[in-house]
Design goal:
Elements (H helix, E strand, L loop, with lengths): L6 H8 L11 H23 L3 H22 L17 H22 L2 H23 L11 H24 L7 H27 L3 H11 L4 H24 L7 H22 L8
Length: about 280
């Protein structure tokens, strides 16, 4: 075997991609991350447009989808209660608390209403969509995740998914929404902000460290590039943005919003998968 002499060669030899988050049972963890973001984002958007059905759907996605995925991820589901033990030191433990508190406060707001319950439920919905970013941020050996912009990016993705799911469901099952125009205006802006955050996140990582740079190269020029450009750039950004703008100016019918919504939801899932898969452990030199 050829002896590595360059810095890049030495890095590749002494480092490795993480697989704990994307293979085998860990795919259930990916599903939980995604569904938690969608559920929390949908709840916040539903509060903003006073959409009662959306509130209930959001809680259901979180309780059944995210909660069920977490249980399927565990090798011993009946021992899940042990996760509650370390909220003072573990973001995963805090996340479980956020899930339960969101479900309880979300249901309370749906059935009872009131400003106080609205504020509390929105707060825990926000915690639900941002804490995963802090879970990854706390993974110090993986430089690509160790970026303070990651939690903000997860919030933006989740809100975009919430708007997309609201638009999609509303097209097929018309329900009273207090301000549907808000969705038409907010949709393009949130997708654009998400695209900008992705760009800044990648550029920042490219210039931050060797390990983070390798992750960016793998994502935009390596084996993951076709998946990233097709799933994230095309389906998650370009197609939804063009469709939303055309629908806003009535170039396309309102039903086209469903296409934009479904496309963005697929792109949001692929973006999370790409971020997880591109994680590289920093080399031990």
């Amino acid at each position: 075997m050829r002896r590595s002499t360059g810095v890049r060669d030495e890095f590749i030899v002494r480092s490795k991609f993480q697989r704990d988050w994307i293979e085998g049972r860990a795919l259930w963890l990916l599903a939980a991350i995604y569904l938690g973001g969608v559920g929390g984002g949908l709840f916040i958007v539903s509060v903003l447009v006073s959409w009662q059905i959306g509130l209930l759907v959001a809680v259901g996605i979180t309780a059944i989808g995210k909660g069920g995925a977490h249980l399927l991820f565990l090798t011993r589901p009946l021992s899940f209660w042990r996760i509650f033990w370390r909220p003072q030191t573990s973001w995963i433990s805090r996340g479980i608390y956020f899930v339960f508190l969101f479900i309880i406060s979300g249901l309370a707001y749906y059935f009872i209403g009131g400003v106080t319950l609205m504020v509390i439920s929105v707060f825990f919905a926000f915690c639900l969509i941002i804490y995963t970013g802090f879970v990854l941020l706390a993974s110090r050996p993986i430089a690509f995740w160790n970026n303070p912009l990651l939690p903000i990016l997860f919030v933006s993705i989740s809100l975009a998914s919430g708007i997309s799911l609201t638009e999609t469901i509303h097209i097929f099952f018309a329900q009273d929404i207090s301000n549907p125009e808000l969705l038409k205006v907010a949709g393009p802006w949130v997708v654009s902000i998400t695209a900008l955050l992705i760009l800044v996140y990648l550029v920042g990582n490219f210039f931050s460290s060797i390990a983070a740079k390798e992750s960016v190269i793998y994502l935009v020029k390596g084996q993951l590039a076709p998946f990233f450009y097709t799933g994230v750039v095309l389906l998650g950004i370009i197609l939804p943005l063009i469709t939303l703008i055309c629908a806003y100016f009535e170039v396309l019918p309102s039903s086209a919003l469903a296409v934009a919504g479904i496309s963005e939801l697929v792109g949001a899932f692929i973006l999370r998968y790409s971020i997880l898969k591109a994680g590289i452990y920093s080399p031990v030199v």
